[in-house]
Amino acid sequence: MADEVSSATRENVVLVGFMGSGKSSIGRLLAKRLGFQFLDTDHLIIERAGMPISEIFTQQGEAAFRDLETSVLRSIMHLRRCVIATGGGAVIRGENRRLLHELGFVVGLSATEDVIYDRVRRNSKRPLLQTEDPKGTLCQLLDERRPLYEDAAHWTLDTTQLTHDDAVTEIIGAARRAFLWHHAA
To answer: Fewest C-beta in 10 Å: which of 29, 58, 122, 146?
Structure first.
């Protein structure tokens, strides 16, 4: 696995996965346990655009949002010892998947469709789920993106039945192997 991590010297852990898979909440805890900086690319996009993601989608469209996403990934390539939570669609572009691999050890987080829907259904800030059939949309998007998450990830973890703490412990173990860490984290 260590050979697959092209930028092991950066020691970044990059979290990819569908909305509701746990990237932000697990990422914050992971960063704390590792003593790393936590970054959320969606928050960086909001700062750069000066508006919420839902407004970017409404006013400028999804393509403009995806351009910002790629730009943000490029802008953090110099960082090291970070846990980076990405947006659920960050893997859509091939260029982004390449950038994610360059950033560090990419962990794909997943969960069952029902668990993801339960986690995100009350959040009105999810622009892609503002449809007449949000669960149907979620299932369709998840089916489309699943192979992209698999392509982007060096290692995957199903968070469906894990506590955040258990997920973090699993990720640290995988990162330790990927980065050849010999000390306890």
So the answer is: 122
SS3 15: strand
For residue range 125-138, list pLDDT tens digits in order: 666 667 788 789 88
- Find the helix or strand (DSSP H, E) in which 40 lies: strand 37-40
- β pairing state of 155-158 and 105-110: parallel
Would you state the structure tokens that stand for residue 95, as one six-digit string? 């260029």
> Is the C-alpha dihedral spanning 107, 111, 115, 121 positive or negative?
positive
Q: Which two tokens stand for residue 82?
A: 């970070």
Burial of 103 (0-12, 13-18, 19+ CB in 10 A): buried
Total-model pTM: 0.90
